[in-house]
Amino acid sequence: MTTTDFAKHLTNFFSEYLVGERGASPNTIRAYSNTFTQLLNFMDEKEHIMADKLLLDHLTKKVVLRFLDWLQSSRKCSKATRNQRLAALHSFFKYMQYEDVKRIVQWQDILSIKVKRQEKRSVNYLSIDGIKFLLEQIPTNNRMGRRNLALIALLYDSGARVQEIIDLSPSSLRLDKPYCVTLFGKGNKKRIVPLQDEQVALLQAYMTENGLDMVAYNQQPLFANNRGGRLTNSGVTYILNMYVTNARVLKPELIPDRVSPHTLRHSKAMHLLQAGVNLVYIRDILGHVSIQTTELYARADSKQKREALEAAYINVIPNLGTEGLWEKDAKLKTWLKNLSK
């Protein structure tokens, strides 16, 4: 079978450019791979062009726009996911500008596609009481429950992204003082996050029970599935949601409607901020490239904003006596009461 020009360039893009020249992380490779898998599905299903017949000439701006619309309409993807898929395509067509200069106008036409503006969502997080109550729902009278407690507690305590936890092995942990975990984040950037005594005790007991404290197993997955392989993102979400559902039934006021593994990361950041930890340190713990990303937690913390305003407040309003003038107006009071009826 003859290799098409698209197949040839896509293979080189992944194997030579992303891995060889850019040194892209496994997470980036995985995300880009998912994008092109979905593009092939779209071309087959909607454009009636099978993967082995797909040519570079087929990939025009109009086709890419139809693909992005299909993601949102048929696949029910969010704007954020649509923008992530577009970023992967942009990376490929930037590469193609230098690989196939004869069609540079075609590639630049695709590169002109803009990302969709996303609505800014408020930070979704649990209070400290909410985290405590959630962890209390995990039974410790069986092996699976003890694993899940170590997993979810570490997810919160380290403020890690779920993929960073999935990628951990026993060698990633330092369980003698100073306790810490080594995480590899976006762009394969390494960071070291301190761990608390209680978390270390939990991990030591879990690792001893599962033989993970032996040198021969220090490169095995720290948290494995039933087959001994690494957990997946959806697997961790499923484990978390088992206990979230129970906790919400018992104390709905403590558990938000939406809780994901990333919610625990948000929660850790908010709790550090509320404890007075400097934003620079929170940025380093979370692995943010820019402190502007971390500042969203400061903007979201209305309690801290209120306390800051109260601490800086200077009373410049004239004293009207024990009772405000509006409180003395019986007609106004009656009118205000009627508003709530």
Can you describe this structure?
With 341 residues, the protein is mainly α. The chain folds into two domains: 5-111, DNA polymerase, domain 1; 128-305, Intergrase catalytic core (hpI Integrase, Chain A). It is built from 16 helices and three strands. It has helices at residues 5-21, 26-45, 61-73, 79-99, 104-111, 128-136, 143-158, 162-166, 197-209, 233-250, 261-274, 279-286, 291-300, 302-312, 325-328, 330-339; strands at 173-174, 180-184, 190-194. Strands 1-2-3 form a three-stranded antiparallel β-sheet, with no helix packed on it. A hairpin with a 5-residue loop joins strand 1 and strand 2 (180-184). Helix 7 crosses helix 11 (261-274). The longest helix is centred in the N-terminal third of the chain and has 21 residues, at 79-99. Mean pLDDT is 86; it is low at 312-318 and 322-326.
Question: How would you summarize this macromolecular structure in one to three sentences?
Answer:
The chain has 341 residues and is mainly alpha-helical.
Name the features.
globular, DNA polymerase, domain 1, mainly alpha, hpI Integrase, Chain A, three-stranded antiparallel beta sheet
